[in-house]
Design brief:
This protein is mostly helical and about 300 residues long. The protein has one domain (about 10-290). Helix content is about 70%, strand content about 0%. The chain is built from twelve helices and no strands. Helix 1 runs antiparallel to helix 9, helix 2 (about 40-60) runs antiparallel to helix 8 and helix 4 (about 95-105) runs antiparallel to helix 11 (about 245-265). The longest helix has 28 residues, at about 210-240. It is globular and about 50 Å long.
Length: about 300
């Protein structure tokens, strides 16, 4: 690990803050789902966050994407915000935030497998072994653990969300030349519009929250959980490689489970802990444990890549 990926100092502190905010997002979504229907709640969140990014774009007088870049940015919004969050918000109606983050720890491996399937990266043997180990952890949580509630429909939804997140990262790299504020303004507006459409089709209630804990969870998700997390991620990506930054996907479950114990009195059961360890070990072995070798051209400084936010 070179100096650009070595944790520590200010960047290490920024990374830790990003992991904390990302892990807390899943707790906030669970609170949001207590009063807001899932698709509508996600749509409100990203409509408000997109408004903040639009204001930043207008104040800085940034150019908007055009032609192919616009099409790719719209696709980024559909994958990274509409599809991903529709599936995750719906799954969080029936599973705990801790279980959701464990399944989403598959995102680094899913991204690697999708990139290999599209001819963007070479598939490594240890990635396949890591995938099998991580899948074994999920199977353990479903079959061997009576304490962990993980309905098949919710599991399928979260795996679908992981696929959307992985493909969203790949699409995002193709629009990395655009300013992050512009990319997320367009992406979040697209995602919010699609989420509102899904909400209307599902016949959800469009009512603003009244419960104080729901209001504050929404405020958190719009500000710290969306705009704040994105800014922290950008600061980390500027100094660390993408592989080093992706460590957060493995650490999200740890933060979320600890917060669950503190806020929601949801205990960490032995079988649930075993499943979580298997998933995170599989991701570590398959995607994160070996140093990434890049060509000289790949290490040249470039504009920050907008990283897909989790939770």
């Amino acid at each position: 690990m070179d100096t650009t990926t070595r944790p520590g100092g200010l960047v290490g502190t920024t990374f830790a803050a990003a992991v904390t905010l990302g892990g807390a997002n899943f707790i906030a979504v669970r609170f949001s789902n207590r009063e807001l229907d899932p698709f509508f709640g996600a749509g409100v969140r990203f409509a408000l966050a997109a408004t903040l990014f639009v204001i930043i774009t207008l104040v800085l007088r940034l150019p908007w994407p055009r032609r192919r870049q616009l099409a790719l940015t719209l696709l980024y919004g559909l994958l990274g915000f509409a599809a991903f969050y529709a599936l995750m918000y719906w799954a969080l109606l029936s599973v705990t935030a801790g279980v959701a983050t464990v399944v989403l720890a598959l995102v680094p491996l899913v991204t690697m497998l999708l990139a290999a399937a599209q001819g963007l990266e070479r598939l490594r043997g240890r990635a396949l072994l890591g995938s099998l180990l991580a899948m074994a952890g999920i199977v353990w949580m479903v079959v061997a653990s009576s304490e962990v509630v993980l309905p098949l429909s919710a599991l399928v939804a979260m795996i679908g969300a992981a696929l959307c997140a992985g493909e969203g990262v790949i699409v995002t790299k193709k629009v990395s030349g655009n300013h992050p504020a512009v990319t997320n303004a367009v992406g979040m507006l697209t995602g919010a519009a699609a989420l509102f459409g899904l909400s209307a089709l599902a016949g959800e209630s469009w009512a603003l929250p009244r419960q104080p804990e729901v209001v504050w969870s929404l405020v958190y998700l719009v500000t710290l959980g969306s705009v704040g997390l994105f800014v922290l991620l950008m600061l980390v990506v500027r100094r660390w490689t993408a592989s080093a930054t992706s460590y957060m996907f493995v650490l999200f479950p740890v933060v979320t489970m600890l917060l669950d114990v503190w806020l929601s009195n949801e205990p960490i059961t032995p079988n649930g802990a075993v499943g979580a360890i298997l998933v995170m070990a599989g991701v570590w072995f398959g995607a994160l444990s070996s140093p990434t070798r890049t060509s000289h051209s790949a290490t040249r400084p470039e504009r920050p890549i907008p990283v897909l936010e989790e939770g």
